[in-house]
Amino acid sequence: MATASWALGAILAVLASLIIAANVLVAIVLLCHIQKSGSKGLCFVLNLALADAMVGFTVMGLATDELSQPFHPSQKFCILRMAFVTSSCAASILSLILVACDRHLAIRKPFHYFQLVTGLRVGVCLVGLWLVAVTIGFLPVFIPRFQRISNHWKCSFFNVFQPSYMLTMFCFGFFPALFLFLYLYCDMLKIATVHVQHIQEVQQAGLGASCPPPHATSDMKAMRTVAVLIGCFTLSWLPFFITSIVQMVCPECFPYKVIENFLWLLGLGNSLLNPLLYSYWQRDVQLQLSQLVAGVKRRVLLHLGSGRCFPGRNIKNTKAVSAVSCLELQD
């Protein structure tokens, strides 16, 4: 038992560290890009990175509990801890929905997009998102019937939450999000197909160039991004929710330890995949990340080059040597 708890704690600690590092880095890159470009839609992606980073911080607390065994937390402590974990995961899923809606709006109404996506509306959406996420996560705190009285030493979903709460999250959280994802992608696919047909008609008439216009390219990028997000979201969270429902209906059919120790980790992996996907698929994020890395590298090289002074020389010679060394390092 102690070895298994330590192994799970180590896995959670490594996963949480990667989630925090990746999302904080992407958040810094997005913040720099938003300041330069003024793009309001990227605020949804920034919020996704912050929500996933919070998932990492909350999971780090669970990892600390696993590594600190024997640990005997109180029932209220476990409920509050799992409420924070659930709120962070809900904020991440809701942020994915906002990102998909933003890309859908950019494709459906490209000429009115910047008029519709204003700073005030983005702020209202983000505030509403976090209010809904906190409500979902802390619902068992407000409604005691969702709490489960258990003498088990471990803080986990099935030890502190009733199956009815898991069923509520599944019916009113995961399923609507998945259906909305599929609807948005199908609608974007239909719009992009119409755009491609129009482009082909113009090219056949000899009125257009052979290369596709910019809005068609942006449509394909948006569709590709949403498709990858939907696929990763489904593969990460669907096994956890399906097996949770099966375990509620038939507790003997599927052990809850497998759900909590393996399938839940798969769902948490979605918070690690999101920043990796955006850093890989989005060229703007790639360029900003490369500029950030190049800036840090340049400063490190300049600092190392300025410290290469030759003892026994006067100040003028020392400064001259350092200046030449820095120029060579920059080149």
Automatic annotation (TrEMBL):
Subcellular location, record wording: Cell membrane
One Gene Ontology term, aspect cellular component: plasma membrane
Translocase among keywords: no
PROSITE patterns, A to Z: G_PROTEIN_RECEP_F1_1, G_PROTEIN_RECEP_F1_2
One of the Pfam families matching this protein, by short name: 7tm_1
Domain G-protein coupled receptors family 1 profile, first and last residues per copy: 22-278
Main location: membrane
Domain of life: Eukaryota
GO molecular function: G protein-coupled receptor activity
Keywords, in A-Z order: Cell membrane, G-protein coupled receptor, Membrane, Receptor, Transducer, Transmembrane, Transmembrane helix
UniProt membrane topology term: Multi-pass membrane protein
Keyword Ribosomal protein recorded: no
Transmembrane segments: 6-32, 44-63, 83-101, 122-143, 163-185, 226-249, 261-281
Gene3D superfamilies registered for this protein in UniProt: Rhodopsin 7-helix transmembrane proteins (1.20.1070.10)
Family membership noted in the UniProt record: Belongs to the G-protein coupled receptor 1 family.
Protein name stated in the entry: G protein-coupled receptor 119
Source organism (scientific name): Cyanoderma ruficeps
